[in-house]
Amino acid sequence: MPKLKILLADDHETVRAGLRAILGAQSDMEVVGEAADGDSTLDQARHLRPDVIVMDLSMPGVSGLRIAAQLREKCPSARIVTLTRHSESGFVRQLLQAGVSGYVLKQSRSSELVRGIRAAAANRTFLDPAIVDKVVGEAFGRPSNRDAIPHVPEAHLSPREDEVLRLVAWGHSQKEVATKLEVSVKTVETHKANAMHKLGLTSRIDVVRYALLRGWLEEN
Questions:
Q1: Rounded to an integer, what distance in angstroms lies between the CA atom of residue 100 and that of residue 78?
Q2: Which H or E run contains 144?
């Protein structure tokens, strides 16, 4: 099996060296490049075409949010895993809306980053377990402790609506969903809109929250 090509983007050389060592020890991963700021991240991504970009949010120059949006536009095949010390749910919400596939805290174990990269490469969304409760807690105004959530919003989704919503929650674009299901993008848009309407969801972050509550993001 070909190894996952990883691009590291962090302005601290010692951090990049540590990440290179961690990821280089994985049999299915290969670090193909490094970048120290937003502009070089964009240049390297366009040149190297990595499978996954592991990116710090606080590099010099362009903001991490803007870099993520530009990467999704210019290198749509690359999945982005952000690596940051920020655990505020606001960052998570904005980055998920921008198309980031993974959100991992620097203070977490290195195994979480490895899990996040593999999930992103498999076109799934990954959130660091340390922040999942915060995100779930915002879902539909319910408490942060998932055990305290009495129920998940219920609606009768058709099998296709359920399938489309799962794929969207896992990080697939509508075009990718259409290709995977062998239907038109318009059909995907219709199923997604119908499912979201039935569940009272209004944005991608709502879809991700719903997926967290359903346990979809923990599936293999």
A1: 10
A2: none
CATH for 191: 1.10.10.10
Contact between 101 and 126 under an 8 Å Cβ cutoff? The reply is: yes
- Counting beta carbons within 10 angstroms of the beta carbon of residue 219, is it exposed (0 to 12), middle (13 to 18) or buried (19 or more)? exposed
Domain count, the chain: 2
Q: How far apart are CA 89 and CA 17, in angstroms?
A: 28
Same domain, 32 and 108: yes
Q: What is the pLDDT of residues 169-199, one digit of tens each?
A: 877 778 888 988 999 999 999 999 998 888 8
Given 97, 127, 157, which residue is the final one in a domain? 127
On whether residue 136 sits in a domain, the answer given is: no
**With a threshold of 0.85, does the pTM exceed it?**
no
